[in-house]
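Handout, section 4.2: multi-component inputs.
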Amino acid sequence: MKKIWFFMVLSSIVTLIFVNPEDCINAMMNAGSDAVALTIKLLGIYAVWLGIIALVDATGLSNKIANLLDPVIDWLFGRTDSETKKYLALNMSANLLGLGNACTPTGLKAMEGLDRQNNSLTASTAMIMLVVINATSIQLIPTTVIGLRQQYGSTSSSDIIVPTLIATIISTVLAVFLVKLCAKIKERLKR
Amino acid sequence: MNISVYITPVLLVLLLLYCAKKRVNAYGTFANGAKDAIKLCLDVLPFLVTIFVAIQLFKISGLTSLLANFLSPIMNTIQIPSELTELMLIRPFSGSGSLALLEDIFSTYGADSYIARCASVIMGSSETIFYVATIYPSQTKAKRLVYAIPVALVCNIFSAIIACIVCRFC
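Output:
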């Protein structure tokens, strides 16, 4: 991430010096206020989701979901403590239900839990798995895209549901497989 | 109307009824949970600003279109229409940016064209990878994600190829 960021910023600013230097600072300021605007929007969304998650937690439902998903979580993330497992279970159910905005708060808490166990500067396989699963998350109904197609006069705006489902499931399955493979290769190299 | 719109409301009703059964103070619990959002957003904000700066600079410097032009022939060989190169480049970085590109594609080629349908599936089946890769490790000690980003990107490209193939038949 830090390499990508450095390369992007450096190459962009160098290009801008030749193309239009006056836009450089403006663009950076705009980016900053865009980020703040997004955070404020997310603050409201996360507050609602975290409120709902607190209800799920308080009723003991989250432990039940965790027990239900236990075999999957064990297989994907290895052994973890029950608190982390709970957030992993909630994160996965949010992913499966297509509640993109509920994924981040639960995912971050699960990430912190996994980090406590890892205690190293390099992310553990479980942490990488969590990031990759969320970065290729399963999307059941792409509502935004369908809405946009309707707006642009599509006659069958929802005919992309099935292709999207196929593509998203394949990409997530491939992601899980690749992370497992990379972890194995890394282990081999260590020996 | 789509049946999927009922999933969340129905689940919420069930949740509230379950709260009543378990005698959980729903009002107080909800508010307490919502409180966590403030810390979460404050923690995440600096990282968002950082990545937004990079994305914005990259976009206005014209490097994205340059890179898109450069990558187009490669895209064609893996069966992805070259019109979609820029969308695929922006998608991992920015949700709103790629949505704007998607609108461009809709208005240029028509929402029911092959290109537009491929673009829709690519948009729907992928995520803003760099957002996830920035936010998730923001609170952890471990910062090195090793192979996480390459793996996610490979899956993204692969699912785009699948998307374009499936769109031919569906």
